[in-house]
Specification:
alpha+beta; five-stranded antiparallel beta sheet; 1 helix; elongated; about 30% strand; five-stranded mixed beta sheet; Immunoglobulin-like
């Protein structure tokens, strides 16, 4: 079958198609609030997540200096950051009178500072702290809910 289109007709269809594509691109650009290079980014290039905000959900008591112990929320889990601790020691965690114990607890530890973390409440659990991670991130140790109950008065945390 023979092509009945003339070269002028093919060229005009190409120009019309390019005009439609150009119009679609410009429409997309017009929908941006401002047309500045700083507002454009690649989909996989996002800003880093903000640093977690320290909270004071549990009372921390110890004879040693435990000012390096921080508490953060990681979704619905209270993360107790003990990465600043080293050597040996003990601290007590107590719930506040208003909220009680959180539903989930976890500890963030850094290898090299401590070799073992022990938590004692309704049950006793011992976490060995493994070797340092490749990226240097702290190791997160989730605490089983059976270790404490709403009636638990305190959790005793020991490290060595």
């Amino acid at each position: 079958m023979r092509n009945n289109r003339s070269p002028d007709m093919s060229r005009s269809m190409l120009v019309a198609g390019l005009a439609c594509v150009l119009a679609a691109v410009l429409t997309g650009c017009a929908s941006r609030p401002t047309f500045k290079a700083s507002n454009w980014h690649l989909p996989w290039h996002r800003a880093a997540a903000p640093a977690p905000v320290p909270v004071q959900e549990l009372g921390v008591h110890s004879e040693a200096d435990v000012s390096g112990v921080r508490q953060y929320w990681s979704r619905n889990t209270l993360r107790i950051d003990v990465t600043a601790l080293s050597g040996t020691g003990t601290l007590q965690l107590q719930p506040n009178a208003v909220n009680g114990w959180p539903a989930r607890l976890e500890f963030a530890v850094r290898a090299g500072g401590i070799a073992q973390l022990e938590v004692q409440g309704e049950q006793r659990i011992v976490f060995p702290v493994s070797a340092a991670t490749v990226d240097g991130a702290p190791q997160v140790l989730p605490l089983a809910p059976s270790v404490w109950s709403p009636m638990t008065r305190q959790l005793i945390v020991s490290w060595r």
